[in-house]
């Protein structure tokens, strides 16, 4: 631990005293911590101050190999939640839903077969993790599920119906109970009032209206010459092929969007502009609610709100990629780091880099 502190202190000293290039520092951190590819950005409401993609699409014998492109897609994992929350906000502003709309007001036919402890859950409860929905954050939980059939949207609907028949998560100590499954149930409400699948709603907003590039699922499932996710097998970091049976279709609204950092940064800029008091596709007060409307976790964003610090942030990982975004309300800046592995070593390195980015800006 002492050695790590000394190394990080040296990096900070070198950075501040010699004005080292942030890309060189990031690349040294990447190589030292066995991260194949990394994208990072520092952005304001109107400018991308720093932006870079470095490294290689998948691990090889040469960690210095470089085929990274600024157009590379990275899997966002649970940072998808902020996008699903954003879609919900557009529907609330269109008066197709309210934050306090109850799930069973839209699906009264499910009441007879559902657990009555869920009867009062609302859209806001689901998106802020206050509905006590079982988490479904691990592969083990999904392995116990029955087989669902049909399209992704149809399977998610069966998944939600199954969940609501079972017991809620009980907790007395936490303000919220984190749940991927809650976002699938919230997406079902959005589908009900629009007559469109979550996939179509995402495309309507991200692609058609905001002109942002995105994919559902891993980037290498669309093109092999894109970043591959990585995980540990036999104590070795290995790239995960696109043919692997691992998938997230039941929890897509919670964590299965991939984007290039340039496009993702534009989405985060909307949030920065909104939090700065401007209308940015949706109302400024809506952004305030998305980020800070609830204590500790609002709608797709965790938050810290004290006299010393006011930030909203989120990390995301499906075990093969890792992403982190933080918006500093007082500085009016956002910091984004995306990597294509999720080892403990890599995650620690990501937060080391975050400290350096924040020390410069």
From TrEMBL:
Magnesium is among the record's keywords: no
Superkingdom as given in the UniProt entry: Bacteria
Keyword line: Membrane
Record domain Beta-lactamase-related: where: 32-344
InterPro entries linked to this entry: AmpC-like (IPR050491), Beta-lactam-related (IPR001466), Beta-lactam/transpept-like (IPR012338)
Localisation per UniProt entry: Membrane
PANTHER family per UniProt: D-ALANYL-D-ALANINE-CARBOXYPEPTIDASE/ENDOPEPTIDASE AMPH, PENICILLIN-BINDING PROTEIN 4
Name of the featured protein: Beta-lactamase family protein
């Amino acid at each position: 631990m002492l050695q790590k502190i000394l190394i990080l202190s040296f990096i900070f000293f070198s950075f501040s005293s010699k004005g080292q290039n942030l890309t060189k520092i990031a690349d040294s951190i990447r190589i030292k911590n066995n991260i194949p590819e990394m994208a990072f950005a520092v952005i304001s409401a109107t400018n991308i101050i720093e932006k870079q993609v470095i490294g290689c699409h998948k691990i090889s014998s040469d960690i210095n190999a470089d085929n990274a492109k600024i157009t590379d897609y990275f899997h966002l994992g649970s940072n998808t939640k902020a996008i699903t929350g954003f879609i919900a906000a557009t529907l609330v502003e269109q008066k197709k839903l309210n934050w306090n709309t109850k799930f069973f007001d839209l699906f009264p036919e499910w009441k007879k077969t559902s657990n009555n402890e869920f009867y009062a859950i609302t859209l806001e409860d689901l998106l802020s993790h206050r509905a006590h929905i079982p988490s479904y954050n691990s592969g083990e939980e999904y392995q116990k599920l029955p087989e669902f059939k049909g399209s992704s949207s149809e399977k998610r609907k069966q998944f939600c119906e199954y969940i609501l028949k079972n017991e809620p998560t009980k907790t007395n100590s936490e303000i919220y109970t984190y749940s991927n499954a809650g976002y699938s149930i919230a997406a079902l409400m959005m589908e009900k009032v629009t007559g469109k699948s979550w996939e179509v709603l995402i495309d309507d907003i991200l692609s058609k209206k905001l002109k942002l590039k995105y994919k559902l699922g891993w980037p290498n499932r669309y093109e092999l010459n894109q970043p591959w996710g990585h995980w540990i097998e036999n104590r070795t970091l290995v790239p995960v092929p696109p043919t692997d049976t691992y998938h997230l279709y039941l929890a897509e609204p919670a964590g299965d969007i991939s984007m290039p950092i340039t496009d993702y940064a534009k989405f985060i800029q909307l949030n920065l502009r909104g939090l700065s008091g401007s209308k940015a596709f949706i109302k400024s007060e809506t952004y305030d609610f998305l980020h800070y409307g609830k204590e500790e976790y609002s709608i797709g964003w965790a938050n810290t709100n004290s006299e010393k610090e006011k930030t909203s942030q989120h990390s995301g990982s499906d075990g093969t990629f890792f992403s982190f975004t933080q918006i500093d309300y007082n500085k009016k800046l956002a910091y984004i780091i995306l990597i294509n592995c999720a080892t403990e070593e890599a995650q620690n390195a990501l937060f080391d880099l975050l400290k350096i980015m924040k020390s410069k800006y």
